[in-house]
Amino acid sequence: MKIFKCPNCSSPAFFENTTCQYCNTALGYNHYLDIFEIPENFHDNTRGHLKLCSNHQWGVCNWLVTHNESSEFCLACSLNRVVPNRSDIGNFEKWQKLEIAKHRLIYQLLKLKLPIKSKSLYEEGMAFDFLSNNKDENIYTGHADGVVTILLTEADSVHREQLRKQMNEPYRTLLGHFRHEIGHYYWTLLFNDSNIEGYRKLFGDERVDYGEALKDYYKKPDSNNWKNNYITKYASSHSWEDWAETWAHYLHLMDTLETAHSLGMEFSPEEQHIQKLVVDKCPNPYSTKNFQDIFNASVALTCSVNSLNRSMGLPDIYPFVVPDKVVEKLTFIHNLLQSKS
Ligand SMILES: [Zn+2]
Ligand SMILES: [Zn+2]
Ligand SMILES: [Zn+2]
User: Which residues surround ligand 2, an ion (CB under 5 A)?
Assistant: First the structure.
């Protein structure tokens, strides 16, 4: 995510800001041009004036929308199918957290030039359901036929940390959930008979029975023999999960590197033993063709920020080791998206 600019005073503006922290001007995000604007002030010939998305009133959105658009909601909010009742304060606060993560996801999908269609208008589109898990229903966070369901309890940080420990995961975040689940959705759009063989060579055969594979996975005693081929243990459960986990990591790396690029970060340690971490200037990953350049900069970036976090007694922001096989898979994703855009 890049750092934006206040159109009034040219100070830094951050993605979730609704007012400038320096001059107090009201701000909205113009996703058509990827800049911040003063709502209603902005005008261009194609879009006229822009107004704030209707969800702004609930404190969950700062995106702008044209007056002549059929929906009162912005691109990101128009993808919602079920959101919690606002009279339920607890769930409402959880929804606010989910929207922050979802807006960041949609921002990145735009950067990657991926199709973003609402299921309310297109059969092959996507939709989001934010649901509570009542005792008598079996509702899970997941993806099915374009619908991404996220359980509201995932927005409770205590509950999420308990699950993370229980599932023995090094990382569990809302943004991570969105990135993983949307990976399943894009799998259905990106692959067909003409390119599925290339996919299978790296990610295995997706025709293996999914339910059985997951059952087997949860039965398996703890083993570490996944570490040379997969980014996480869960990725070893089935080809589709390998894809979604690797896809999520691709999105993690691209977004963190865009932030570093926006800040003009570079790494030039003087000591010999850390010279491997030299990066002249972090590249803009969205305009970099060669994935190895992105990956090399990401290694320097994540090692550095992990070390900074440890200096504050915090866990690593990127608690993963990426084996060569996974670099191959990430390269495959990058090249595939380059060929589509
Ligand atoms: Zn300002
Ligand atoms: Zn919105
Ligand atoms: Zn999955």
Answer: 53, 55, 61, 63, 74, 77
